[in-house]
Amino acid sequence: MKKLLIIALVCLVASCGKNEQPPKDYAVIHGSVKNAKDSISLRLYNPETSLSMMLELDDKGNFRDTLKLEEPNMFNAVYGNVFTLYLKNDMDLKIDFDAEEIQKTITFSGKGEEENNFLKYKGKHISGLFGKDYKNYLGLPEDEFKTTTDKFLADFNSELESKSATLDSSFVAEEKAGMEEFETNMIAQHKEQLEINSKLGKGNPSPNFLDFKNYAGGTSSLADFKGSYVYIDVWATWCVPCIYEIPFLQKVEKEFEGKNITFLSISADQMKDEDKWRKMIVDKNLHGVQLLADNAIESQFFVDYYIYGIPRFILLDPEGNIVTYDAPRPSEEKLTTLLNTLDL
């Protein structure tokens, strides 16, 4: 009887071993989107590798796909707004969210939920550090900046350590390395923000430009617009977010027509693309003053304003002094609110 029991146990163990499934060489991602937008797909994009995938939604907002990944990937998931997503082969991850409030409603479940829930925590933690305007954090005095940053890092590392037993080891290593890089970048950006605040603070004279090509003919310099407030739009024909702002800018221009404010658009297009610039002005029925910078995005005026990405908006007073070096976009109600506080 004892021998029979041993044989039965051996057979049971052998049977379990045969049923154990090897890791899948693909990831399954599925879920649903509440208030889904017609014809909009969920896009996954890795900015480091340029790997891009589109997940189609059905008419009820459901999606499901399998992704074969060569290695674990950190994606920017884009559906109107952006959230971060970690995927690796053998995951079976369910994602649900409301398209109108992604950050507040997104949930993860299934294999891979631990890593992605940690990323959700990380996003909130960074948002708490930056507050409503990240420039306020970066512009803190040295001691206060260090104290705030040290506490942020300590809290992050404590949370990561407490969750490490349930997280993929490669994910933990990547998060540790990523936070070290984040700290280095914040220190560098803090130094630069202090420089920006010193040079481009409210009331400081604006950096200048001379002889930018004017669509209406001849050239123009910044001094030509003294005597009125100047709302500057730095844009380019190749910049999709810039083009998105055009109808909103046209609406603001119409609202403040006849007021003491000049709407000045400066293109960062290259000189070789002047015809393309001129064509878009006609095609989009652009108003205001239209100028073409002398050296594209490397024009000294852009360098002096620390412009690394566009669109960028700047507001000057009638004396040519800075009201704000980073003004609200035309699509933001804050712009109209700000302009209504001025003596136009």
Topology, please?
Elements: H1 2-19, E1 27-34, E2 42-45, E3 52-55, E4 62-67, E5 73-79, E6 81-87, E7 92-98, H2 102-105, E8 107-111, H3 113-130, H4 134-138, H5 142-163, H6 169-200, E9 212-214, E10 219-220, E11 229-235, H7 240-255, E12 261-267, H8 274-283, E13 289-292, H9 300-304, E14 312-316, E15 322-324, H10 333-340
Parallel strand pairs: 1-7, 11-12, 12-13
Antiparallel strand pairs: 1-4, 2-3, 2-5, 5-6, 7-8, 9-10, 9-13, 11-14, 14-15
What can you tell me about this protein's structure?
The protein has 344 residues and is an alpha+beta fold. It folds into three domains: 20-110, Sandwich (Immunoglobulin-like), CATH 2.60.40.1120; 112-200, no CATH class; 212-340, Glutaredoxin (3-Layer(aba) Sandwich). Helix content is 40%, strand content 23%. The protein is built from ten helices and 15 strands. Strands 10-9-13-12-11-14-15 form a seven-stranded mixed sheet, covered by helices on one side. A four-stranded mixed sheet has the order 4-1-7-8. The radius of gyration is 27 Å and the shape is globular. The relative contact order is 0.08. Mean pLDDT is 91; it is low at 4-18.
